[in-house]
Amino acid sequence: MSSVAPFPGPQKDPSAANRAAPPPQAAKPPVRDPRLDFYRGIAMFIILAAHIPGNRWTGWIPARFGFSDATEIFVFCSGMASAIAFGGSFARQGWGLGTARVLFRCWQVFWAHIGLFVFIAVSVAAIDLYGGFEKSYVNSLNLGHFFKDPMTQLVGLFTLTYVPNYFDILPMYLVVLMLMPLMMGLEKIGLWAVAMASVLIWLTANPYMIGLGPDGLSLPAEPWSEREWFFNPFGWQLLFFTGFAFMKGWLPKPPVSKLLIVLAAAFLILSAPYGSWKVFTWVKSASPELADLILPGRDAIGEWREKTDFGLLRYAHFLALAYLGWVAAGEGGKRLIASGSSAAARIWSVLLQVITKVGQQSLAVFVFSMALARFIGFALDQTDRAVMTTAFANLFGFFLIIGCAYGAAWFKSQPWRAKK
Question: Is residue 14 very low, low, confident or very high in pLDDT (cuts 50, 70, 90)?
Fold first, then answer.
């Protein structure tokens, strides 16, 4: 609709208006929400620990206490970050240039995936070839088929019809990004069209929800078996676009309510034995009778907590966890920001800065951590994996991904360019 008044008043001298107008000011860059990068940074540390083979610390990651885990944090926050990075491009420059920017990001993610695979494949091949160890590190990643038939598997690798175990999250992220132009085009019809499209795509991966059986739409992971991608992008896009919608303003921020806080906390606690085998064993040790009552329920909700297709209970569990994290951080993340000059406040301020930096450079850190995890696992294989040895390995890994984050930020700043 036009903003021109239907009954214009007396015309004013435009030159006088120009003289009275204040001088234009340069647009200030948007302030980045600290909650986004803080929680995404936390996810990066968890993902590193989770991918170190035989790591004692994986017994205490979020995946051991409920339906969802660090993958949900990464995907949800990536959706939020994409709303900041790409949503503005669609709004300012139109659908065509917005799509071009998304495709450029897909190009970067694709080559990050290829580079990560080649680097790790060469590394484990070198260890097997020259190390003389009894354990085959090539087979530990199920790469035997790749080295036996490299021509076929290289074609599959580049067409994403061969997605080996351990190398599956970036292809999922890539396909989800490619759905963004579709969603931004549907926004012109209405937000209802975006929501309907995302839900319908999710239902194609989870047809049990509407009584169509267990087999949904998926992508093949390897030509010699029926294994599908471990992270089905048609299921996981629902979480990505939920984060996208919150950051874009398509979904309103939830109210801070004591009732919602209690309900979210109760769901997380009461669902833990159903979503976590670790918690179930604790319940069984404390009360075998209660465990006998829980076990049939665990078996009945197998599809609902399924990770590959992103089952509904994983979605509900993460939203409850995210709500509590959002409330705990406070409006604009104000509770994350330390105040005062005490030693504890200064320490927390440094930790917040470090974790946030890791979250800001999540793609570089993720790729680096996936390679690093294999080397840390190899190093631990040469030890007795004692508690202190494992702790040192994890903490050293954290130190290295922090260094990666600061290094990536330094290179992105292009310090060699002349300052004006």
Answer: very low
